[in-house]
Structures are given as structure tokens and as C-alpha cells.
């Protein structure tokens, strides 16, 4: 056989074991020997049944995503050919699933006659998260096992289900009581003893027959599953393919699935989402931290501050399994903080995403104090106190006095200089920034701010803990606003002038919504509260004609029922307000600004292009290690549409030459620094380079 496939015999059962580290992806070098092993088992009269198992930590994790876009992806034997061979076998084939059977891995298992799972296994079809759909029969086989409604929900969400749910739904036939392979062999022997027939999934129609008679239930499931797919093609293609599985004969539906898959895999949205898949993993690899470095042990976490951020951060660590002590200055503040935490968990329970028992268990992981000394045994202490350097330094001074040697001291600052904070302690090597995004218990992004003196093992510990609590970590350098907020500043810089010169809040927000952002900057400002920016500007001695006027009038946004928009009682729907239009015109008149029609393209050039430019400056200053890190920050922390791959990936598709030309035009016209093209960006545009390393658009 080959290093990737070995075949053993247990009586009349051929046990085919795959071994393609790290996750048994169905690379071509695995597909070929597997195909040969299946043919040999088929033709060997002494073999009466087959088990397919995997070595290593998981069953097949899917097609080899690195092969997409190369001839290997479709090289024979393809995954569909493997599935067809499995389904044609005259003897029972059993998949032995441990770890995760995902994508093509589950599709191969669905082409087996039976599936036995380890109790800790998970199965799923996550292709939609790569801008794809299951392209090896998943959309036609899964509905035949679980019914079209459940199938379309699984395929459009892309989320895996655990072994017990898979057994209940009918995806797997049994859960191993002991050793998975032994149980799978015993299962195969029992099926051989039964004498069959071993009906392949393709021939089972009972679960889809009802929908064939009445599609209304299925269409309702489609409507629910595709509710939030804003501009993405893959979720809709997934639903179409499952509908075909119901309404068309198997082979016809399979053919159409392939056509839909080929259409998606060559499209920019899938390239963008595959880029993000690998970018997220790259971001967790920190240049300059050698393989020998080990993370410090973190068993107990302290959080200072029980406000919105502190409470959310504390929940994140508790959700990741850590015991957390929350410190506040008073019992009343602690009471308020824990009431909010309890309410947040209560919402999850009412939504059915958390059981009462789980809530009680998590609440039991918290402890509370008003005494710094109670944090002395914490391995990691993070502060989420008021965003003011003096306050931060006071907190770190106290931590320095009580924290045990080797404890990691972290700041949740959004903007401030972590080096300056570190310098206020005698242990700058133990200080790091952990910038969570609000709501901290929900948002996945975590900017890990590396100070000049932050020790490598502190950095590695932060990355390890971040992934344990389900965050997406990106290591960033020290500057005002790090990566995300610094680029947000560039994206927002022209907002007021665009309004004064003739655009309306609703026009600008529509340009953003059409681009795929969850909402535009002005609706977002109303949601977050305009007073936050107003306070920040005042602390920096800055002004904003319109934003300040709105706040001076008490128009803070949704929380006051008025901001850039009007909000009806209890509604979050932004309504354009003629009062705001009048205010803008008045401010323009005061400044002698002649208003004019402003095109949507101009809005893009004066908001998104400066953002790309700031990203290039961030790369020049090594505040971010790679362009794809910036893409991960923006798609996980600010709602940059994943179908566009993040700002730097999108800039490649927009064309760096075009971006530089337009930045130079606006720089010439306004003289504003935000338009002055970064040297790196100019150089890349001249050289025809690209941020994603692919040929320029
Ligand atoms: N192909 C290639 N490389 C992969 C891979 C894959 N499918 N999955 C993981 N890797 C790499 C990953 O880049 C990393 O590399 C290493 O393996 C460990 O991954 C036809 C078309 C399986 C749950 O979408 O969800 O099948 O950084 O850090 O946290 O219909 O990997 O070490 O160099 O994520 O333990 C569908 C994707 C493919 C599953 C394990 N399948 N993978 O998580 O390890 S499309 C997926 C995962 C498809 C068919 C369609 C996770 C994991 P490096 P990791 P992990």
C-alpha cells in the first residue's frame, strides 16, 4: 500500500486506515491509494465487509483546501469517484469516525453504507464557511438521512453536530461503546451476518418523500436558514442544491450540485473565505517566538472591573473553563456587574443555547472581591478600568505589589500605550495588552498587544489562552489604536466633511450596507452612542461640527431616541431626520461650504481607500506582521464582509494602482494626510504586487 493508507484484516473484514497528518485531508496522495484499496477489497472474495478508519487525532477533515485552484483538486480519483465506488460495493462499508468528520470527510462517510462514531466525535458540512457547498454528494445524501429541513439547516449554517445529535438525526448508525475501530469491525461483522441488503444512502427516499409531496416545510426551513446571508452566494447555492435533492432524481441532483460547486470554487467570494481560513491560522503564529518556548500555566484568572467590558471579559474566561475572580471598588459595583452577567446568561438560556445547569456551573466559577490581595494567586490578571493612563498606571502599580511572580498582567486598553503601562511596573516582561471587542463575551477578535519588553512566553500564553476561550487572536504592536481602531480612525476621518459637502448620513450608510457591512458608520455611531466619540474628542481637544452639535443637543443615538437618525419607541430602525439635514446645511453654510451631489464612488474613495492606506502604514511600521492579520482583525472585529476577504484582500481585487491614483487625486485636492499614499502601497502598485501575494487584480 502506501504510507497514507494501510490495510489490515480482521477475519472477513478489511480495515483500511488512512494516515495523512495533521487532519487526514483528502489530498490526492491519499485519494489514490484509498481508491486502489477499496477496489482490492471489492475484488477479494475473502473480504465480506470493509471498515474505513483514520489514524491521528481525527477522521477526514474534508477535501484538501490547499489543492483548490490547482489541478490536484479535480485529479482522478476525485472525491465523487471515491464516493461512487463506495456506493457501488456489493459488500457493507462502515466509516469509523473520531474527532471531526467534516466536509468531504463526512461526504465520504455518507457514501459508506454505515457510520459508527466515537462518543466525542463531531460531524458537519462546513463548506459554506469557505464560500462553497458540499461538492461530493453531501447535499443529496444528507437529506436522505436526516430529512431536507434538518439537512438545509446544517449545510447552510456549516456548523457541526456532536455524536449523540448525529445518532438521533440518523447521520450515524451507532456510537462506539469502547474502542472505535473494534466496535466498527464488530458492527461490520454483524451487518455481514445479517446478510443485507446493505442499502446505500442514495437509494433511501423515505426521509425526503414527504417534502417531495409538500415543499412548504422545506421552504420555511430555507427562509430561516438563509435569513442572515447578506450578499453571500454560497448559502443560497446550498439551499438550491438541497432543494434539487428533493425535487430531482439522485443523479440529476448530484450533477447540478457539481455545477454549483464549480461555479463557487472559482468565484472571488470563496477565494476570499478560503484566504480567511488560512489567515486565521497564520495569525496565531508569531514571528520571533521559537518552537522551544512554552506557554505559562494559567489556572486562575483575575479581572479588574465589572462594567460592560470587565463583565464580558470575565464571562469569556469562565466560558472557556477558567475560574475568575472579579475585583471592583465596591460591593454595589460588583452587584451591578454580576446582575448583568446573570442577565446575559439568562438570555442564552431563554434562547436555548445554554442549559440552566450549564448556567449554574458557569456562575459557580466566579468569585468576587474588593481587595487586591485576593488576586495574589491569579496566573493572569486583566484590567478593564477607565480608559485613562493615570488610572491604568495606578491599577498596574497595585498589581505589581500583590501579583505573584510570573503572573501575567494584561490591559484591555483600546488605544493607550502598553509600553508606558508596563513601565509603571517592575515586571514589564509580564505585561501585555489583551484588547477585547464589545460585547467581549460574543466578539471573537482579540488583539494581543505586544509591548517592547513583553516576554515571548507571555505572548505565547496569551495566544494559547485566547484560543482556549474561543477567541481569534492577532498579535499587534503598540501605537494609538493598534490595528483595528487605528484603521477605523482613517475610515471615519472624512465622515463629517462628506456630510458638509453634500452627502447625507443615509446615503453614506447605504454605500456601506451595499458593500456588505452590517451597518453604516452613522447608524453604528447611533448604536454605540455618539457621546463616546464626543468625550474622546474633548479629551483630545478635537471637535466635529455635526457630531458635537448633535451631542450638545442631547442626541446620543438609539439610547436617546435621536442621533444621526430618529428612532421610534422600542425600535432600532434608523429613520432619516429632516432636523439633522437642516443642521448639516446650517453647519455647511457657517463654513462657507458649497454643497454638491456626491457620488457613491467618492464615498468609497474617501472612506475605504484611506483605511487601506492606513493598513499599509501599519505594515510599514510592523504594527501588524502580515496583511492577512489585518484581514482577520477586520472580519472578526468590525464586520468587514467575509465574502470580500478583509480590507487588504479586497484592496487586491479593487486594484492597488487604482487605489493609489485616487488617493493621490484626493491628496492633491485636499492636502489631507489621510490621503497621502503610504510608500509601501505606492511601491506595490508600481511593482504590480498584491497584499495576498497573488497576482495583482
Ligand atoms: N485542508 C487542508 N489543510 C487543512 C484542512 C483542510 N481541509 N483543515 C485543516 N487544515 C490545516 C490547517 O490549515 C492547519 O495547518 C492544520 O491543518 C491544523 O488545522 C468536496 C469541498 C479539522 C476542526 O472546512 O475546521 O471538503 O496552520 O489549526 O484547531 O465538499 O482544521 O498547521 O499549517 O484548524 O485542531 C471542508 C477545515 C473542506 C474543515 C481541526 N472541511 N478544518 O482544527 O487544527 S472543503 C473544512 C477545520 C470540502 C467537499 C468540500 C479544522 C479542524 P497549519 P487547525 P484544529
UniProtKB/TrEMBL annotation:
InterPro entries: 3-OHacyl-CoA_DH_NAD-bd, 3HC_DH_C, 6-PGluconate_DH-like_C_sf, ClpP/crotonase-like_dom_sf, Enoyl-CoA_hyd/isom_CS, Enoyl-CoA_hydra/iso, NAD(P)-bd_dom_sf. It is found in: Peroxisome. The keyword Nucleotide-binding does not apply. Keywords: Fatty acid metabolism, Isomerase, Lipid degradation, Lipid metabolism, Lyase, Multifunctional enzyme, NAD, Oxidoreductase, Peroxisome. The keyword NAD applies. It catalyses: a (3S)-3-hydroxyacyl-CoA + NAD(+) = a 3-oxoacyl-CoA + NADH + H(+). Residues 300-477 form the 3-hydroxyacyl-CoA dehydrogenase NAD binding domain. It comes from the Bacteria. Residues 481-567, 603-688 form the 3-hydroxyacyl-CoA dehydrogenase C-terminal domain. Pfam families: 3HCDH, 3HCDH_N, ECH_1. Pathway: Lipid metabolism; fatty acid beta-oxidation. Monomer. Belongs to the enoyl-CoA hydratase/isomerase family. In the N-terminal section; belongs to the enoyl-CoA hydratase/isomerase family. This is 3-hydroxyacyl-CoA dehydrogenase NAD-binding domain-containing protein.
Amino acid at each position: 500500500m502506501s504510507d497514507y493508507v494501510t490495510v489490515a484484516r480482521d477475519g472477513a473484514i478489511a480495515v483500511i486506515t488512512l494516515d495523512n497528518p495533521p487532519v487526514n485531508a483528502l489530498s490526492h496522495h491519499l485519494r489514490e491509494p484509498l481508491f486502489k484499496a477499496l477496489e482490492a477489497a471489492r475484488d477479494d472474495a475473502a473480504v465480506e465487509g470493509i471498515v474505513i478508519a483514520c489514524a491521528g487525532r481525527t477522521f477526514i477533515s474534508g477535501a484538501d483546501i490547499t489543492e483548490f485552484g490547482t489541478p490536484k483538486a479535480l485529479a482522478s480519483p476525485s472525491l465523487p469517484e471515491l464516493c461512487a465506488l463506495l456506493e457501488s460495493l456489493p459488500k457493507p462499508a462502515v466509516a469509523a469516525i473520531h474527532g471531526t468528520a467534516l466536509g468531504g470527510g463526512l461526504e465520504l462517510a455518507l457514501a459508506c453504507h454505515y457510520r459508527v462514531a466515537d462518543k466525542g466525535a463531531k460531524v458537519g458540512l462546513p463548506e459554506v464557511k469557505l464560500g462553497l457547498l458540499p461538492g461530493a454528494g453531501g447535499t443529496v445524501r444528507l437529506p436522505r438521512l436526516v430529512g431536507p429541513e434538518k439537512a438545509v439547516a446544517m449545510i447552510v449554517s456549516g456548523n457541526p453536530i456532536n455524536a449523540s445529535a448525529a445518532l438521533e438525526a440518523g447521520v450515524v448508525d451507532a456510537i462506539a461503546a469502547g474502542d472505535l475501530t473494534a466496535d466498527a469491525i464488530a458492527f461490520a461483522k454483524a451487518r455481514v451476518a445479517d446478510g443485507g441488503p446493505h442499502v446505500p444512502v442514495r437509494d433511501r427516499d423515505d426521509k425526503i418523500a414527504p417534502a417531495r409531496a409538500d415543499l412548504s416545510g422545506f421552504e420555511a426551513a430555507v427562509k430561516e436558514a438563509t435569513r442572515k446571508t447578506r450578499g453571500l452566494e454560497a448559502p443560497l447555492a446550498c439551499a438550491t442544491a438541497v432543494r434539487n435533492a428533493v425535487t430531482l432524481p439522485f443523479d440529476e441532483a448530484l450533477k447540478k450540485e457539481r455545477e454549483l460547486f464549480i461555479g463557487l470554487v472559482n468565484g472571488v467570494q470563496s477565494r476570499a473565505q478560503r484566504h480567511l481560513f488560512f489567515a486565521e491560522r497564520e495569525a496565531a503564529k508569531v514571528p520571533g517566538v521559537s518552537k522551544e518556548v512554552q506557554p505559562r500555566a494559567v489556572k486562575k484568572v483575575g479581572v479588574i472591573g465589572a462594567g460592560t467590558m470587565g463583565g464580558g471579559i470575565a464571562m469569556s474566561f469562565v466560558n472557556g473553563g477558567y475560574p475568575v475572580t472579579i475585583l471592583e471598588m465596591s460591593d454595589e459595583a460588583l452587584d451591578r456587574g454580576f446582575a448583568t452577567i446573570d442577565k446575559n446568561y439568562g438570555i442564552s438560556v431563554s434562547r436555548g443555547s445554554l442549559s440552566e445547569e450549564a448556567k449554574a456551573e458557569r456562575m459557580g466559577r466566579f468569585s468576587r472581591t474588593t481587595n487586591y490581595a485576593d488576586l495574589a494567586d491569579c496566573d493572569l490578571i486583566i484590567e478593564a478600568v477607565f480608559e485613562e493612563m493615570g488610572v491604568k498606571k495606578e491599577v498596574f502599580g497595585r498589581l505589581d505589589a500583590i501579583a505573584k511572580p510570573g503572573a501575567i498582567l494584561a490591559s484591555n486598553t483600546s488605544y493607550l500605550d502598553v509600553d508606558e503601562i508596563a513601565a509603571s511596573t517592575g515586571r514589564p516582561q509580564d505585561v501585555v495588552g489583551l484588547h477585547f471587542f464589545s460585547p467581549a463575551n460574543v466578539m471573537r477578535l482579540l488583539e494581543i498587544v505586544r509591548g517592547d519588553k513583553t516576554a515571548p512566553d507571555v505572548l505565547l500564553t496569551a495566544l494559547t489562552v485566547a484560543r482556549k476561550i474561543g477567541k481569534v487572536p492577532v498579535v499587534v504592536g503598540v501605537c494609538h489604536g493598534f490595528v483595528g481602531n487605528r484603521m477605523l480612525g482613517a475610515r471615519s476621518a472624512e465622515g463629517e466633511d462628506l456630510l458638509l459637502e453634500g452627502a447625507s448620513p443615509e446615503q453614506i450608510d447605504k454605500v456601506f450596507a451595499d458593500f456588505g457591512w452590517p451597518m453604516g458608520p452613522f447608524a453604528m455611531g447611533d448604536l454605540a452612542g455618539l457621546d463616546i466619540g464626543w468625550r474622546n474628542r474633548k479629551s483630545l481637544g478635537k471637535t466635529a461640527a455635526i457630531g458635537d452639535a448633535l451631542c450638545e443637543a442631547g442626541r446620543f443615538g438609539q439610547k436617546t431616541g435621536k442621533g444621526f437618525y430618529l428612532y421610534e419607541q422600542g425600535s432600532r430602525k434608523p429613520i432619516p431626520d429632516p432636523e439633522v439635514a437642516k443642521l448639516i446645511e446650517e453647519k455647511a453654510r457657517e463654513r462657507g461650504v458649497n454643497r454638491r451631489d456626491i457620488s457613491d464612488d467618492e464615498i468609497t474613495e474617501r472612506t475605504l481607500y484611506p483605511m487601506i492606506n492606513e493598513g499599509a502604514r501599519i505594515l510599514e511600521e510592523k504594527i501588524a506582521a502580515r496583511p492577512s492579520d489585518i484581514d482577520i482583525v477586520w472580519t472578526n472585529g468590525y464586520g468587514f464582509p467575509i465574502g470580500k476577504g478583509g480590507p487588504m484582500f479586497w484592496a487586491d481585487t479593487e486594484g492597488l494602482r487604482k487605489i493609489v491614483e485616487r488617493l493621490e487625486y484626493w491628496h492633491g485636492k485636499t492636502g489631507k494626510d489621510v490621503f497621502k499614499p503610504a510608500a509601501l502601497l505606492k511601491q506595490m502598485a508600481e511593482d504590480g504586487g498584491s497584499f495576498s501575494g497573488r497576482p495583482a487584480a
